[in-house]
Amino acid sequence: MPSQSSSVATANSGPLSGIRVLDLSRVLAAPWAAQILGDLGADVIKVEQTTTGDDTRAWGPPFLQDGDEATFAPYFLACNRNKRSIAIDLAKPEGAEIVRKLAAQSDVLIENFKVGGLAKYGLDYVSIKKAAPNIIYCSVTGFGQTGPYAPRGGYDFLIQAMGGIMSVTGPAADTPGAEPTKVGLPAVDLFTGMYAAIAIQAALRHKDQTGEGQHIDCALLDSAVAMLANQSATWLMGGPVPQPMGNAHPSIVPYRTFPVSDGHIVVAVGNTKQFIALCDILGRPDIGADPRYQSSPGRKEHRDELEAELTQEFAKWTKDSIIAAMSQNDVPGGPINTVDQVFADQQVVARKMLEPTPSTAGTELPLVRFPAILSASPATIRRAPPQLGEHSVEVLSQVLKLPADEIAALCKRGVIGADK
């Protein structure tokens, strides 16, 4: 029978303690979902191919050395903590049967194969449901299980383009050298993973109430469309087709980067009170009192004139001096940090976002904690990202209760791979 969730999770176990997740996914979107569940206390068993494992194990350099031979690549390190790795050859009938048996002992299965790709192994939803009638089976694909694009493979960059994100990102169209630009991180993969994790938890709640499992169909393109948010709402309400605006905001002014004497800062003024305070800081109360700028629609209408005046004033300040003055007067703004500066920022340090975690080999791995802080049932990092097949023997003996000689025979036949 599948594992049963605890009615009350302790502070050390996490709110999803007692939930077992079988993670057949690789790369980023679906592994990100599985990692979120693992951070929240679920027991996540990552199923990998015996020879290469997750594709992202090889996505370097750089590589972080772990012990004498093994290494970690950045992508894999970022989305595979709190998981146990079992290496299985799915193409062997015995291997597929092991997955079905593990599914029967699990609450959730996550996969991101192409539509229909697992059917040939007897590991699609219909087949798995026979072995695990109440399973929550989450499929993450580029375009979903239905529709004319369903058979296609989907990648973050492609979906950022097709989903409209690149059409509103980057310099304004009339800027020299402007072209459609992707977000500087795999935003669609990450948001799809988050949507999948939310959907899985909703399905777990439904299962608690009814005992019924279900199939979750999560698509990168659907997530990208949902993420258009205010941009799509503007057009759907009869507004113009949104265009790229660089660092400017389509509705709020001033809400962009400004050059100062030693670099750039971000100004994020959201209302008229903050705008007047900013003008006072800059020594230009006359701008704050200008009738053209007394409302958000007015500031938007006269954006070019207003921002030109503000740009002249910001140029008289250094980054540190203007940011300090804005902070003291409750005007939102701040520096544009590089990644190294992010982890040196006193707020990030105070919040302990970086959580060094030792691997099995003793290497300290630089991991970033789950961002939400739950006061009664906090997320934890209990396991470092695993080496390929690190837990094959452990999972087969503990979860499926297989004897040692049977496990050894499976390894000898190449059905199972086990980390030495």
UniProtKB/TrEMBL annotation:
Keywords: Transferase
GO molecular function, one term: CoA-transferase activity
Record InterPro entries: CoA-transferase_III_domain, CoA-Trfase_fam_III, CoA-Trfase_III_dom3_sf, CoA-Trfase_III_dom_1_sf
Biological source species: Thalassovita taeanensis
Protein name: Crotonobetainyl-CoA:carnitine CoA-transferase CaiB
Classification via Pfam families: CoA_transf_3
